[in-house]
What does this fold into?
Amino acid sequence: MKAEDRYHRFVRWSDEDQCYIGYCPDLYLGGVCHHENEEACYATLCVIVRDEVAHRLAKGEVLPTPAVRATRDLDFAAA
It folds into this structure.
């Protein structure tokens, strides 16, 4: 398993912003990307997470322990 695969990523529609917003709560607070198309938003989110993990590892940082569970934490993470 690749390091970035440990982190839960999700996309949800925002009525307020009228677009899809991508989240990875273990690495970022709040949304990290947005798009009018759900699939494009998720693809962008995957690139951002992959780049962030690679950047942190290149700097010698210890990656945060994944803690978000899809069945219990998603509404909290997107609030």
User: Anything to note?
Assistant: Strands lie at 10-14, 19-23, 31-35.
